[in-house]
Amino acid sequence: MAARAALADSAARAGSTVLTGARVVLPTGTVVDGRVTIEGTKITAVAPADAPAHDLSGHWIVPGFVDLHNHGGGGASFTGGSVEDVLRGVRTHREHGTTTLVASLVTAETDFLAHRAGVLSELVEQGDLAGIHFEGPFISPCRKGAHSEGLLRHPEPAEVRKLIDAARGTARMVTLATELPGGIDSVRLLAEHGVIAAIGHTDASYEQTVEAIDAGATVATHLFNAMPPLGHRAPGPIAALLEDERVTVELINDGTHLHPAALELAFHRAGAGRVAFITDAMDAAGFGDGRYQLGPLAVDVIDGVARLVEGGSIAGSTLTLDTAFRRAATVDRIPVQDIVQAISANPAKLLGAYDRIGSLEPGKDADLVVLDDEFRLKGVMRQGAWVVDPR
User: Which residues are annotated as a binding site for Zn(2+)?
Assistant: First the structure.
């Protein structure tokens, strides 16, 4: 239980902390030479009276990152491995600024996924995870990516219901190819149970995608990837997902999954309020190159890029959200306020947790990230305790 103890963010250890001198990114804008006060696990003020302060001049303070789509890290997979392995993966991403994380499962036998959901649900209940995302098995064999084709299933409502029941109220999202038999009924089922229906790994047409959105789908799983490309006569799912104000689009900003022009298009068309940066990370995130398993499939990670040994498809990423933030700021030149929306506020809202996380406001959890003036990570606080101390 050493790893479990190491993950515990004890309020008893987190007394009163005042951070001062940094540029503090708030929902209303950036405060230069701002101050943030933390009492226990909560933010109590962003402009307090004079108090002993921790000087962070020349830095940024932004909300802790929220990752909706993450398969593992630190050499550990959320689909396989022990509870201690899962916690090692969570810790790896926390050290890179992700203070809230949803564990994603890849395609496997339905009974295995149900069992795995039961295991992970305990970690959700303990506060280590923010929920469970089933990315498969209800996806298109035409757009399977790094999923085992022999294990794919049609999204029949009874099969979908089995998985969300196994998660005991901790299922947050299910990715579906909604054009498959049962897809639209399953979208309605998920919406009725308060679970996000995400369109992804899909071969749907524009019209089929519109139908799924009207039925209640609200997220695009890693937009552009594992779906038909945008066409001028057959616009496919991308156009439908970008144009609808009800949909939030996931983007993997690692320089491999998306060309910068595609990222710019998504921000321009959807707006910063409908973008969620994700990692889609697998075991190698924060760990290094080598041979890995993604479910039953072998993956080689070379120079930080994960690809299937057979076929060469991209197999998730080795991304951490601090790298996604820095790339967005320095390569894509996205305004910091917009990056914070995409990496913290928007995913927190999707999880129904914006009253607790996703912004720096009094009464919210003291989850924050300290970045230097070149957007390199220097500190991470979760619930008032330093995961990475900037001193």
Answer: 135, 201, 222
